[in-house]
Structure formats: structure tokens, C-alpha cells
TrEMBL record:
This is Radical SAM domain protein. It comes from Vulcanisaeta distributa (strain DSM 14429 / JCM 11212 / NBRC 100878 / IC-017). Its cofactor is [4Fe-4S] cluster. S-adenosyl-L-methionine binds at E175. NCBIfam families: CofH family radical SAM protein. Residues 48-284 form the Radical SAM core domain. SMART domains: Elp3. Binds 1 [4Fe-4S] cluster. The cluster is coordinated with 3 cysteines and an exchangeable S-adenosyl-L-methionine. PANTHER family: FO SYNTHASE (COFH), RADICAL SAM DOMAIN PROTEIN.
Length: 363
């Protein structure tokens, strides 16, 4: 059994991996949420934050073809695309003019036909046209893939991307940092150790990053705990992680779902446990934890803001990866403020580096 006092004492004494695994399995999700919320309020008070951003995928061509992904298209597919630097820049300028975005979130598939000069021109083009827009992108997974294609070190790729205008490394590609799980859900991607190494490498060349965790597929509670502790250890060494984002797996249209390895989305109680245990493990090591409304839905996102989360990640204008998997969520800043208010929080617009811009009024 597990009590509120057990949870509070673990925070005081320092939560261990065995504690966290026990709490995930034995604790009532409401108790976990309550204690995680208490801790979060001590860290950031009655505030939640969000960045106003546009998501542009440079290409959906990907040779990895992961069973968890519904976004990718193989070479030669009628729906495959590569966006030109001019198209990407135009999309940023339109989003800035219409919505006031301050961040470009740019990712794509593993497209071996793209050279490093393509990415450098994308970053330079965006910076020339919109120098005040912060560029956040590619993931550590993309950095690893392209470094191998281009026969370069990952550090050299990071340094050249930074010199061309990249500001922050995206947190994707982590999935679950356990090889047993990764062999099933991302069999052709790099290993967990490489993701962690590239995160640290980015921090050491002057690029801060986000970090993610994909949950709600075939993982077990011990895998969640292993993942969050690995993220915490990186942060304790480098202090370079801005935001931790647990992402709920949206199974529809994925091979994992078609093969019967996942029957449907994880129940809401599990979402609460994942967010809460993440907060109990991380404490204030990473101050902001995301309630990713795109994957959870808006109603559940509000609940997660009372369970250890305190950031709504982004407005995510034009997000396509989870929409291809079956998510139908879209949102306005006013709606996000309402989500925060339902959790008893005030929503503040921030930039990518978590500098506060202004408070957001409810719709």
C-alpha cells in the first residue's frame, strides 16, 4: 500500500527508483496528483506557461518507418514532400503576422536526400526574414541520422546548425529510454545512450533543449521511472533542459496499433500517474513539465495541470505528426488560458527560454 505520507516523505528524503516504481504501481492516482500538485505550486506558484509557436515539418520522407509513427511517407510516395527554405520562411512570416508566434518548431523525417546545406539555408532564411523568431528543431534522432549520412560528428552538425541560426534543440526522439522497448517501437533508430549523449553535446556547444517521453504504448512503470531519472541525471550535469514533455501515444493509424500491440490510448488515470511521478522525481531540477494538450486532449490537459504539470507546451499551429496518428485537437490562446484557469492557474505567454512575455486572458 501507499499513503500520502509515504509520498511526502519520499520528497523530503529523496525519491529513489524503487520508491517511484512502487508509487506508480501501488498509489492511487488522486494521491499522486495531490502531492505532485503541492510540490509544483511550491516551485512555480499559481502559474502555467505556454509559447506561441508554429510547427513546420521540412519533410515527411523517412527511412526509419517506425511502428509508432503515422507521419512518415517512403520515397516516391504520392504524399511525400520536401519543403523549400522559401516555403518554410513564408510559413513563419504568415504565422507571425496572423498569430504573433515567437517560435518556429521545425522537425521532419530521416530523409537521406537532404544535405547539411539545405538545413543551413532554412535556418539562415528564417533568421534573415524574422530575426526575432526563435528556431527550435531538429531532434537528437535527426542529428544522429544526418551526421551518419553526411559522415560528420554529431558535435560538428550541432555547431554548424547553431552557426546557421538554430537556437534550441527539440526534445523529440527520446521515446522511452530503454532498449527493450525501443527494439519494438523504434527498431531502426539509435539507442537511448546516443540520445542522452547528443542532448549533453548540444548543451555543451551552447544549445539548450527540451526533453520528451512517449508513453502509453508497450512500456511498463519501471520504464517510465528509468526514463525520467535518466533525464534528471542529464539536467543535473548540464542544466540545459528547458522543459520536460511527456507525450501520450496516439495509436490510431500506426503499425503498432494495426499489429495489435496497442489496443487504444492509455486511460486518463495513467496519464495522471505519469505526470505526477515525473514531478516527484524531477522536483525543481526541471521547473516546467508539459501537459501536452495535442495528445491528451484539452480537458485532460487541465487535469494534468493539477497533477504536476505547469506548462501547456505551445499553441502548436499547424502540428501534423500527431494529427496524422489521429489527434484532432486545435486550440487558441484564449482556450489555453481557460484550461489553466480551470486548474486554478493563471496562464502566462513565454518565449522558448521561458522568459515571461505577458499574461493571457481567457476566451
Amino acid at each position: 500500500m501507499c499513503t500520502i505520507d509515504d509520498l511526502r516523505n519520499a520528497i523530503i528524503n529523496g525519491i529513489t527508483k524503487s520508491d517511484a516504481e512502487k508509487f506508480m504501481v501501488e498509489c492511487d492516482f488522486k494521491d499522486l496528483a495531490r502531492v505532485a500538485n503541492e510540490l509544483t505550486r511550491k516551485i512555480t506558484g499559481d502559474t502555467a506557461t505556454v509559447v506561441n509557436n508554429v510547427v513546420i515539418n521540412y519533410s515527411n520522407i523517412c527511412v526509419a518507418q517506425c511502428p509508432i509513427c503515422a507521419f512518415y511517407r517512403p520515397r516516391g510516395h504520392p504524399e511525400a514532400y520536401v519543403r523549400t527554405p522559401e516555403e518554410i520562411t513564408k510559413g513563419v512570416l504568415e504565422a507571425k503576422a496572423r498569430f504573433g508566434v515567437t517560435e518556429l518548431h521545425i522537425n521532419g523525417g530521416f530523409n537521406p536526400d537532404l544535405g547539411i546545406e539545405y538545413f543551413e539555408e532554412v535556418f539562415r532564411s528564417v533568421k534573415r526574414a524574422a530575426p526575432d523568431v526563435i528556431i527550435k528543431g531538429p531532434t537528437a534522432a535527426e542529428i544522429d541520422f544526418y551526421a551518419r549520412v553526411w559522415r560528420m560528428s554529431t558535435r560538428e552538425v550541432l555547431e554548424r546548425f547553431k552557426a546557421a541560426g538554430l537556437d534550441v534543440l527539440s526534445g523529440g526522439g527520446a521515446e522511452i529510454l530503454n532498449e527493450e522497448v525501443r527494439r519494438v517501437i523504434t527498431p531502426y533508430k539509435f539507442n537511448a545512450e546516443t540520445w542522452l549523449r547528443i542532448q549533453e553535446e548540444a548543451h555543451r556547444v551552447g544549445l539548450m533543449s527540451n526533453a520528451t517521453m512517449l508513453y502509453g504504448h508497450i512500456e511498463k512503470p519501471n520504464h517510465i521511472v528509468e526514463h525520467v531519472f535518466a533525464i534528471k541525471e542529464v539536467q543535473e550535469r548540464t542544466h540545459g533542459i528547458l522543459l520536460f514533455i511527456p507525450i501520450k501515444f496516439v495509436p490510431w493509424n500506426t503499425k503498432l496499433y494495426r499489429d495489435g500491440l496497442v489496443k487504444g490510448p492509455a486511460p486518463a488515470e495513467y496519464d495522471v500517474k505519469v505526470i505526477a511521478i515525473s514531478r516527484l522525481i524531477l522536483g525543481d531540477t526541471i521547473r516546467r513539465i508539459g501537459a501536452y494538450w495535442v495528445s491528451t486532449g484539452k480537458r485532460l490537459a487541465s487535469t494534468l495541470l493539477m497533477a504536476g504539470a505547469n506548462d501547456l507546451v505551445g499553441t502548436m499551429i499547424n502540428e501534423q505528426v500527431l494529427r496524422q496518428a489521429g489527434s484532432k485537437e486545435s486550440v487558441t490562446l484564449g482556450e489555453l488560458a481557460h484550461i489553466a484557469r480551470e486548474a486554478g492557474l493563471r496562464l502566462f505567454l513565454r518565449d522558448t527560454f521561458h522568459r515571461i512575455i505577458t499574461e493571457v486572458g481567457s476566451a
